[in-house]
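Problem: given the chain below (343 residues), write out its structure.
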Amino acid sequence: MSAVAAAVSQGSAPRPVPAEQPLLEVRNLKMYFSVGDSLLFRRSAGKIKAVDDVSFTIARGETLGLVGESGCGKTTTGRCILHLESPTSGEILFEGEDLGKLDRKALNKKRERMQVIFQDPYSSLNPRMKVGSIIGEPMKVHGIYPNRKERLDRVAELLAVCGLNTKFMDRYPHEMSGGQRQRVGIARALSLNPQFIVCDEAVSALDVSIQAQVINLLENLRERFRLSYLFIVYDLSVVRHLCHWVAVMYLGRLAELADSDALFDNPLHPYTQALLEAVPIPDPDVERRRAHRIMKGEIPSPINPPGGCVFHPRCPLAVDSCRHEVPQLRELRPGHWVACPGV
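Solution.
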């Protein structure tokens, strides 16, 4: 496995040189939201640092899992990559081109190759449109398969690829189960032949048995079409099966990044260790004998984050320097990056 998903620094740490140009490269991405805006005085009461100096790369055909607690900035990172949000600063390079420097027409052309699968398979589908129109609309908007019969043939092909019968073309979203609706969402994402897909908690709203089916489908599609995924998820139990690399995010910053096996077998950052210890073990005897370490304290406010390392108020390894110095990602093992001076 290549090391192309290794992090670029949250600052200036080195990174391995990939064997080929990465499909996606995120450099020092920041996304701040103003809060308490006053139209009268044109001033802001503060800023939420949703994403604060995050960098990573994703190679062709690989999956990077972005994990962390709710509110840590995972979804905002994905939205910034797709330019659904305009980043405060930083660079997003897709196929070597800086998306922030493209005009509207060129950016729309790039978006054909960058798609998203949303978390809620019901609200992300237009309830007034039939499945055939939902999947065919992106092709119509982007001028792909302009002939209606060609579009319908393509829709039927995509439904078959995603494990659905062509009869679903004439159904509305409310006439399908959650798993079927999510398969329609996946088919829609594939309709423009993308190279990169943001999976924004694409299985979290599904039953456990359906989750496994959808994860296997995503893995098969990745291998078949050599897709790259940014897999945003809070449930670590689904990460190891699907992801080549895992980036752990806390309060807008990356805490740890490593290949999936290394991170699960030997997590180094205290926050990563706490996340993994919170995952239940299926064997009741092993679970009963297991020592649980509960993370103390609450997540700080992103409007007023603590100085230095944002995790230090809850960290068992925190020292005085953690309160003043922002830790940078360091490569402690080949391809294993950690932002903690105490490990």
